Every structure is written in C-alpha cells, then in structure tokens.
Amino acid sequence: MTGRGMGVHSDFDAIVIGAGLAGSSMAAVLAEKGWRTLLIDRNSSPRHKACGEFLSPEAAALWRSLGLDSRIAGLGGANIDSLLLTAAEGSSLEVPLPAPALGISRYRLDSALQEAAVYHGAELVHGCSVLQIRPKRNGYEVDIRGKSERTSIEARTVFGCWGRNAASSYAKQSRLPRSKADKPLCIGIKVHVEGLPQCSRVELYFFQGGYIGLSPVEEGRHNLAALVSGAFFDRCGRNTAGVLSEACRQNPALALRLEGGATVPGTEAGAYPVLVSKHTTAWGDVPHVGDAARVIPPLCGDGMAMALRSVAMCVELADRYLCGELSLEHWKKRYIRQMRRHGAGPAAWGRLLETVLCHPALSQAALRLGARMPGVAARLFRATRQ
Ligand SMILES: Cc1cc2nc3c(=O)[nH]c(=O)nc-3n(C[C@H](O)[C@H](O)[C@H](O)COP(=O)(O)OP(=O)(O)OC[C@H]3O[C@@H](n4cnc5c(N)ncnc54)[C@H](O)[C@@H]3O)c2cc1C
Question: How many A from CA of 312 to the centre of ligand 1?
Fold first, then answer.
C-alpha cells in the first residue's frame, strides 16, 4: 500500500472520507476520471472487518459498471451458487442463487480497492480522522486529526463514506446512547476457519439470540460471521469462543458442520452496535455513500452491493457537478431521490426474516414451508435485495 502521510496540504477536487468498500470504490472511479482525489481513513489497512464476506450476485454487475471487475476477478474468491438455511431443531432449506456469488475476505477486498484508487492517482492517507466539515464558497474545508497533528484541507467536493451508524455523527460514533445500542442483534463478530470441507454455498444457522453465517472465501478458508443480541453475547461470556459454543449447543447441525475446523488466529473482528437504518440519509452536509447512507440487515447479504449501487449513482452525478454540468442543488436532489427508491423494501424484508428465523418455532415452520414451496422461498430471497 502506497498511502502517504500527513504532508498532504494541496487542494483537491474530492475528499473521500472512509476507505472501506464504498469510499475506496468511489475514490478509484473519481481518480480514474481525472479528479484530484484524497482518500482518508482513520484506521490502518489491511485489516479484518466484521462482515459475512458474501458478495451477492448483484455486486458483479456493479463492479463491471464501475470498471473494477478485473480487480475483483484477480482476488481468488470462492464461487457460491446456493444458500442453505438451517433452523436450530434441524429443518433446513437450500435455495439456488439466481446468479453466481463470490466469497472474498474484506481484508483482501478493501485493500484491493484501495490499491485501485492509488493506481488511478488518488492519494491515500491512513490513521487520520475527519473531525469536521465546513462548507465554504465553492467547496469545503475539512479538519483532520492524525496521530500527533491537526490540519485542514480544502476540496471542491467531499464524500461521507464513513460506514455504519455514523451518518450524522462521524466524529462521535462511540458515544451512541445506550438505549439505541441495546437493540436485538446488535453485535457482529467474525473469524476465519480452516479445515472445513469445501462447498459452493453460503450457509446460515439460526438459534435463539442470533445466527451464524458461513461463507467460503479465498485459500480454502471459511468466513464465520455471527450476529447476536447483547443479552446472548453477555450470556456467552462476551467472546467469540463462548458465542460459538452456545450456538453449536443450540444448533447441532452447526456443531457437525464445524467439526474438524480451527479458527485462524488474527482474523477475528467485531462490530458494535450494528443498527439498521430506519430511513435513508443520502445527504447531510455532504453526500453520504454506502452504509453512511443506509444500513440494511446483514441477513440480506446485500449491504456491499447496496453500497456499490450508491457509489455508482453518486459518482455519475458528482462527475457532472465537477465538470460544471450540474448545480450542487440538482446533484443533491437527484441523488436523494435515487437513493430513496432503493433499499427500503430489502430492509423491511430483512428485518422480518431475522425475527422469524431467530425464533425457534417460527424458523422451523418457515423452513418447512419453504421446502414445500420453493417458489415462495426464491421470491422471499429476491425481496431482500434490489
Ligand atoms: C456482521 C455483519 C455482516 C455483514 N455481512 C455482509 C455480507 O455477507 N454481505 C454483504 O454484502 N454485506 C454484509 N454486511 C454489510 C457490509 O459490511 C457493509 O454494507 C459494507 O461494509 C459497507 O461498506 P462501507 O464502505 O459503506 O463502510 P465500511 O466498510 O464500514 O467503511 C467505512 C470506513 O470509514 C472509516 N471511517 C469512519 N469514520 C471515519 C472518520 N471520521 N474519518 C476517517 N475515516 C473514517 C472506517 O475506518 C472504515 O474503514 C455485513 C455487516 C455486518 C455488520
């Protein structure tokens, strides 16, 4: 990674805040179009992130439209062609995916996208937090804090790609009120597992208090991601081993599946709180892209595709604004309108399915019904995505 330090003071056409999937893709496309782009992230890279690491079929077309598909193809991801759901008492349902999906670690994916941004000419800075964005005439001034210094940088446009639950409080994520952080299924954890039999499906195992997703990723490994309630996490001793042991106790099919596997040291990551958006927040002081605009339930397995879709919509309008073909007001109106059209349906279906599938009796009934009526199951799967 060739990111530069805090010596960057020149003006930019675009500052992209957050070098996750959305921000790095955004910066790569802006820089490729010739705009002087600065990409900033407060964390180091590469690093593991709490994510199911399932790249839905919808993502493939979006990579193509953003011109990033060749980068993704070279990452050695695992092919996935079906989804297996298993309830705690053992009922299961396999649904073929409408098109091929991929399993790739965020460790590999996010750093490949950052490399693409740098390759196209963006400047990348890690370890710097954006503290404040001040609108100015014809642009913005952005206050940034590094390890030991603070600086201000000016740019014509700024993009908020700072991720989940931070739409209006990018500087204060950790200070969410407790009442909000105590929602059910608010803790995400992930770890890689090696030594499991290979198969080309993503698997979801449900139990009272949450669910675990198992997705094949590169190098013959599996990514295991859990989403659990705060109460469940407390009961399990607030650690990954405890969560796995209780999930396996409740769902014997999961215990069987994980037999012979071993977690890979250094691949653990956590996310807290995972709060699903009630509304789309496509614009604050600046456009919001990716999870900053809308968080859908992780069960949908489509958050990354939704993030890419917001990149595709925003970057086209931003390019026209920077070229002087569109006013800021028109850009804002159009982007908000486009974003409102996407995401509300999948979020609602995802929430409903989470509630049903994490309830032992309901999940059993739902999966049995789905097995008898495969058309309905396939339609429900489609309802969780755009
Ligand atoms: C448990 C879990 C499982 C999931 N599983 C899946 C799945 O299987 N498939 C799928 O498609 N989606 C899944 N998702 C959703 C997916 O992870 C997100 O939709 C995706 O990460 C959104 O990307 P992003 O770039 O918007 O945000 P992020 O990837 O979160 O990136 C945001 C970046 O902004 C940086 N940042 C934040 N604030 C600042 C600041 N002030 N200054 C500088 N930098 C800042 C952060 O360090 C971070 O790198 C899952 C989510 C969770 C929580």
Answer: 17
- Give the per-residue pLDDT at 183: 58
Instruction: Determine the pLDDT at residue 177.
Output: 39
CA of 237 relative to ligand 1 center, distance in Å = 26
Q: Which atom of ligand 1 is nearest to the CA of 292?
A: 26
User: Ligand 1 pocket test: which of 6, 16, 21 has the largest number of ligand atoms within 8 Å of its C-beta?
Assistant: 21
The ipTM of this complex is: 0.99
Could you list the mean pLDDT of each consecutive 10-residue stretch along the chain, which spans 386 residues?
41 96 98 98 95 94 95 95 94 92 98 97 96 93 91 96 65 39 77 96 95 97 96 93 97 97 96 85 96 92 94 98 97 96 78 84 86 81 76
- What are the distances in angstroms from CA 140 to CA 129, 157, 288, 351? 16, 7, 15, 37
Q: Which residues line ligand 1 (CB under 6 A)?
A: 17-23, 40-43, 50-54, 56, 129-130, 161-164, 166, 170-171, 188, 225, 227, 271, 274, 290-292, 298, 301-305, 307
Half-sphere exposure of 38 (CA within 13 A, CB side): 27
Domains and their CATH numbers in the chain: 12-49+107-175+277-345 (3.50.50.60), 69-105+178-275+351-383 (3.50.50.60)
Pocket test for ligand 1, best of 24, 41, 107 (most atoms within 8 A of CB): 41
CA distance 43 to 53: 19
pLDDT of 261: 97
The ligand 1 atom at the shortest distance from the C-alpha of residue 290 is 26
